[in-house]
Amino acid sequence: MDDFDKQVFLLVDDSESDVALMREAFVKAGVPNPLVVVPGGEEAIAYLKGEAPYDNPDARPLPLVLLLDLNMPGKAGFEVLSWVRQQPTLKRLVIIILTASSRAVDADTAYDLGANFYLTKPGSFKELVEMTHCLHRWLRLNHFPAS
Predict the structure, then answer these.
(1) Exposure string (b/e) for 56-73, b if CB count within 10 Å is 16 or more?
(2) pLDDT at 144
(3) pLDDT for residue 83
(4) Is residue 15 a contact partner of residue 41, using CB atoms and an 8 Å limit?
(5) Distances from the Cα of 51 to the Cα of 1, 46, 72, 79, 134, angstroms
(6) Are 96 and 75 in contact (CB under 8 A)?
(7) Contact 14/73 with Cβ under 8 angstroms?
(8) How far apart are CA 66 and CA 95, in angstroms?
(9) Torsion angle, CA of 111/10/17/136, rounded to 10 degrees?
(10) For residues 36 and 88, what is the distance between their CA atoms, to the nearest angstrom?
(11) Is the four-CA dihedral 139, 120, 36, 43 of positive or negative sign?
């Protein structure tokens, strides 16, 4: 396992079933990276800021990738995306919107706020595994470690 494979993917999703599917997709797709999950926008911001209950830096590595759902109670995905893009220390964080919404206006808004990618959650588990595998390979091929 190299350094890339040790870097964390942070999934922000309030749906327990979607989280379970993503965990299984990581396994089936052979993605070795740790998948850390927080259930909503407030928790995502607390994690990224290092606030309680995520205030132990050893247990809270900064993620390489933020997989962000849009439609969540409390702080929605757009609010989290906007907040992250205003943080100088997080400006290089790869943000992938992973949502059920296939509305063009949502994709446009996400890109306007600084998302790197906008992906609609696939309709089948097989497609989710394929998407996860392709995404991991693309990130691996295009990740340039800081010098």
Answers:
(1) eeeebeebbbbbbbbebe
(2) 59
(3) 98
(4) no
(5) 30, 5, 20, 18, 33
(6) no
(7) yes
(8) 5
(9) 80
(10) 22
(11) positive
Whether the Cβ atoms of residue 74 and residue 41 lie closer than 8 Å to each other: yes
| 3-142 classified as CATH 3.40.1550.10 | no
Alpha-carbon span 65 to 137, nearest angstrom: 13
Please count the residues of the chain. 147
82 vs 91: CA distance, rounded Å: 11
- The structure tokens 């295009």 sit at 142
Residue at 84: amino acid letter:
V
**CA–CA distance, 6 with 144 (Å, rounded to integer):** 14
Cβ contact 79:72 at 8 Å: no
CA atoms in the 13 A half-sphere facing the CB of 62:
11
Ranges of the chain whose pLDDT falls below 70: 1, 144-147
For the chain, what percentages of helix, strand and coil (3-state, to nearest 5) are there? 45, 15, 40
Tell me the C-alpha distance between 28 and 35, whole Å: 13
Residue 147: per-residue pLDDT: 40
Residue type, 104: A
Contact 129, 27 (CB under 8 A): no
